[in-house]
Amino acid sequence: MGARVLSLAVAATCVLLPLTACGGASTEPSTGAATGGSRASDATAGSATTAPPASLSARDTVAVVAWFKDSRHHEGLESLDKVLSRYTAGSATSDAGTVLTACNELAHDVRILKTFDPIPDAPAQAAWASALADLEQGAADCAAAIRDNDTAQSAEAESGIKKGDSEYAAVVDRLGTILGVDPTNSPT
Q1: Of the four, 49, 92, 102, 143, which is 20 to 30 A from 157 by CA?
Q2: What residue range is the signal peptide (predicted)?
């Protein structure tokens, strides 16, 4: 019965995901983690790999796929990815206006993302909750630092946002391993 349930999970995944994700699908667990995308920390994205979720049941895999296919979850991940990239670009050029805009967008996105359904995978949800908390604090510190021209608070903001981005990258990698696709890229 276990192979049948796993086959059903693979079939359900293939129905819900683009056909490119299911080419050559098997009932064996995926061994690759999602990499690439446009996460603000490319070094983190390239180096952080997650072991295949061996303990994830077929039912849990289907639940994660269903969670992801809810368009607001997918769009939320894409939006967070974009705003983190804008924050990094503004920081790299020391453009206070761009950084402030990105921090305000980040705070806005995090407020919305916190209302979403939890990820039905405990390790991904734990990293997600930590990422959102750190990004929320970093965004608040960022806006205050720019408003008050406070370099110490600016450094705290940058540290919080980098930590949140690293935790977010772990979520994306874990979801990518479960889903077999990079969850921050639009399906083709």
Answers
A1: 49
A2: 1-23
